[in-house]
Amino acid sequence: MAIAFGGFIPTYWKPVIDGTFHRPAIIHIHGFVLFSWCVFYFAQTLLAARGRTPDHRSWGLAGIALFSVMVCTILAGQVAILNLNERLGFGDEARRFAAVSLTALPMLIAVFILAITMVRRPEVHKRLMVLLMAMLMQPAIARVFVALLAPAGAAAEGPPPPVFVAIPPGLVADLLLVVALVHDWRTRGRPHPVYAYGLPLVILNQFMVLPVAGTAAWMGFAGAFAKLLG
Q: Most buried residue, 82, 110, 148, 218, by CB count within 10 Å?
């Protein structure tokens, strides 16, 4: 919760309060839905921790619906940003950088579906949800990098950054999984397979974006994606 909310203070919450944040309405909807998901996750873990498993499972259907809406806002938000940058003259840069979110989305969906299928195996289910949440923290951590490292006076309407700048925030987010893996190692005597296999797959997914984003195939896909849903 602290990462999800605090990470967006310098680039979203504060500019919104100051009246200096100017983006399409879908970006506000996207932010509201994703933060609602984080609140929902916190509530669900609280129910489970207090032994209220039936309530936790009853609310699970709402979680499926909320996650589905969240995916839709991610896609719609990407379309809005792609089209906005196209109008600003940064179309190519935006299409390349869109690979950061759009190549991560299939893995997010796969992990969530797997977590839902494992609801009868709580030790697997809860770790899959931790894996999912760690992946979702990358954008919030990236905003901290932007706030700390962006050049003074950098234009808010400037071009999207090169794709490689997404790697360090992703690796910082992965530390959440390292903590979980070490905790399992100390308490179970070995890392749980969800973390043992999930962490390398997450890292591979994060680095995969580098060779993909600059290809003609990706640029064509991103352009068609923006026009199809735009």
A: 82
Residue 161 gets which letter from DSSP?
P
pLDDT of residue 157: 65
- Dist CA 200 CA 107 (whole Å): 13
Which ranges of 122-166 would DSSP assign to H, the alpha helix? Answer: 122-136, 138-149
Is the Cβ–Cβ distance between 181 and 195 less than 8 Å?
A: yes
Start-to-end C-alpha separation, the chain? 32
Kindly report, residue by residue over 50-87, the tens digit of the pLDDT: 999 999 999 999 999 999 999 999 999 999 999 999 99
The token pair at 131 is 């894996």
Taking only the tens place, the pLDDT of each residue in 81-129 is 999 999 999 999 999 999 999 999 999 999 999 999 999 999 999 999 9
Alpha helices (runs of H) in 19-158, residue ranges in sequence order: 25-49, 53-58, 60-88, 91-102, 105-117, 122-136, 138-149
Question: Helix H segments across 137-166?
Answer: 138-149
Give me the torsion for CA of 141, 161, 23, 217, rounded to 10°.
-110
pTM of the model: 0.90
Q: To which residue do tokens 């709580």 refer?
A: 122
Amino acid at site 28: H
| Beta-carbon count within 10 A of 144 CB | 18
CA–chain centroid gap for 166, Å, is 12
DSSP code, position 2: H
Tokens linked to 127: 């770790």
**Cα–Cα dist 85/130, whole Å:** 33
